Amino acid sequence: MRIVHFFNLANDAYSIVKGLRRVRIEADVVVMKYGAITQYPHWEEVTTGVPFKYHVSDEDFSRLMHEWNPPSWVRFLDIGYKTRNIHEILARLKIIKIMKEYDLVVAHMPSSIYAMLAKVRYIPFDAGFIRYITGSGLKQKLALKSYISAPFIIYTNPDTINIFKSVKLDNRIVFCPFAIDTDKYSPSTKTPNDIPTIIFCPSRHIWREKGNHIALYAFAEFQKKFNPEAELHLCRWGEDLYRTKLLIKKLGIKNVVWHSVMPKPKLIDLYRMSDVVLDQFVLGSYGTSAPEAMSCEKPVFVYLDKDANRNAFGEIPPVINVRTPEEILKALSCLDRKKMQDIGRKGREWVIRKHSLEIVTKIHVELYRKLGIL
C-alpha cells in the first residue's frame, strides 16, 4: 500500500513521512515548488550558513538542491503559480493524476479539494486551515465539502475544536500533535542567566494571530523595570513586520537583534542560547515553535485555551500560560535560573511524551489501519 502526504506547509508532512519511513512504511511527500521556504525539507535539513529567502525562485531552488539532495521519497511539483495561465490548469490536473498513484492521500491544506475531485481515499490534515474555510467563497465551500466528504479529519490545533463544532464536524476529527524530532531539537549545556536576558520571539509578524504587539509591550516594560540589559531576538518575516518595527521605535525598546529566515539547525542554536521563548498570544494554541523550544528545554510563554488543550492532550502543556502584556511581564519578572531550568526540563519531558516522532507516527499508523490501508 502506498501513502502520500500532499503539500508540506511548515514541514508537517515531511516530519511525519520521515517517521513513517523509520518504521518501514512506504510513504512519500509531495512538495510544491516556488512556494515559501518553510514548505521545503531543506528548511529542516540544510546545515550550512547559506542565507535563505522566504520566497523560493528558480535560482534559489537550484541552490537549495545543491546544498542538500533530498531522498527519493520527496517529490517536487510545479503547479504553475508563476504563470497563471493554461500551464497552471494543466499542472493542477497533474496533482489529481499524481494522487491517483497512491492508496491513501493525507491531504495537507488545501490539497483535500484535489483529493476529493480525484475520488481517491484521503484524510484531510488540518493545521488551522479550518479557520479560513467557513466563508462563502467558492474555494471555502469546496474545502469544507472536502472535509465533510472525508471519513475523518486530523487536526493539530486544539483551539479549532470550537470551529469544527460550529460546522458540525467535531464528531469527525482526530487530534494528532505536531511531530518533533526530539533527538535533533535537544538541549545544550548552556546555563540560563540569573534572570531572563536573552528573549527569543520566533513567530511571524501577524498580529491578529500571533499577538507580536502583546509581547512587545511586555518586553518594553520588563527592560525598563527589571533588566535593561535584556535582548529581544526577532525574525524578519510576516505581513506586520513594518508595524512591529514602528512599535519597537515608539516604545523605545533597546537591544533588539534581528534574524533573517534561517534553516532549522540555526534556529535550534537560537533556541539553545535563549533564556525564554515567547510564542503567540491570541489563538489559544501553539504552532511548532513552542514544542521545538520546549524540546530544547526552554521555558515557553504562550496563551493556551485550557479547556481545548486539556480535551486534546488530556492535560495542560507545561508552558507559562499568559495572554496579556501584564501577565507576560509578571511571569518574566518572577523567573530565576532555577525556575527556568525546572520549567525547561518539564517541557522537554512533555514533548517526548506527546510530540516525539515515535508517538506521532504511532497515531498515524493506527489511523491508516482503521481505513484498512496497512
Structure description:
Strands 3-2-1-4-5-6-7 form a 7-stranded parallel beta sheet, sandwiched between helices. A 6-stranded parallel beta sheet has the order 10-9-8-11-12-13, sandwiched between helices. The chain starts with a strand and ends with a helix. The chain has 16 helices and 13 strands. The chain has 2 domains: 3-179 and 357-370, Rossmann fold; 198-354, 3-Layer(aba) Sandwich (Rossmann fold). The radius of gyration is 21 Å and the shape is globular. It has helices at residues 12-22, 42-45, 58-67, 86-99, 112-118, 138-148, 161-166, 207-210, 212-225, 241-251, 264-273, 289-295, 306-313, 325-334, 337-354, 357-370, and strands at residues 3-6, 27-32, 74-77, 104-108, 122-126, 153-155, 173-175, 198-201, 231-235, 256-259, 276-278, 300-302, 320-321. The protein is α/β, with parallel strands linked by helices and 374 residues long. Helix 1 links the parallel strand 1 and strand 2. The longest helix has 18 residues, at 337-354. 43% of the residues lie in helices and 14% in strands. Helix 4 crosses helix 5.
Protein topology:
Elements: E1 3-6, H1 12-22, E2 27-32, H2 42-45, H3 58-67, E3 74-77, H4 86-99, E4 104-108, H5 112-118, E5 122-126, H6 138-148, E6 153-155, H7 161-166, E7 173-175, E8 198-201, H8 207-210, H9 212-225, E9 231-235, H10 241-251, E10 256-259, H11 264-273, E11 276-278, H12 289-295, E12 300-302, H13 306-313, E13 320-321, H14 325-334, H15 337-354, H16 357-370
Parallel strand pairs: 1-2, 1-4, 2-3, 4-5, 5-6, 6-7, 8-9, 8-11, 9-10, 11-12, 12-13
